[in-house]
Design a protein that fits this description.
- By secondary structure, the chain is of the alpha+beta class.
- A hairpin with a 6-residue loop joins strand 1 and strand 2.
- The termini are far apart.
Amino acid sequence: MEGNELLMTQELIANMLGVRREGVTEAAGKLQTDGLIQYSRGHIKVPNDPKAPLGAVNLFWIPSWAGAEIEVDRETGKVRVLRLVVGADAGRAINAAACRGQIEGAALQAYGQSLFEQVCYDGAEPANATPLRYRVPLASDLPEHFESFTAEEGHGPGPFGAKGIGESGMLGVASALANAIEDAIGVRITEMPFTPERVLAALDAQSSEL
């Protein structure tokens, strides 16, 4: 980021938060540091609004998108994901790599929840609640082609229209996979994870209705 752009960003943040901006030189001149490192922290708290649900104001929306191309083995019920594409709107991607990391990391979390992850019980006790027995995706389970994109519509309340994007890639993955399964074999599965057992059960139920 160029110096003028950085200065503009600092001004915008200061104005948005309602705080007085002070240059580093001026602030440092007021301190007797004696060789010590000075640092500070800050936060913003948006006032509650009694008209909003739970009193919390919604500052922005995060549109996100997901699409999947899959294969389903009708004999075994196994779902094989050939391609997964995810994206989200960051408003303005000030840190493009961080935005991409949030989208992709969250998408793969949702991928695991959609196809593999579940806690099984033996009576009242969890039967697989250990790192060795709890099923998460392996490298060999990941989509053959995995793509992401970051939209920048500029509608956020932050500098240059930026807004939060944390874990937004998670939102549409399960729906995309469920839609792809239905498109492939004509059955709708509404319970995650979409295991081979549930796929076969849905196919059996479809056959019995014919």
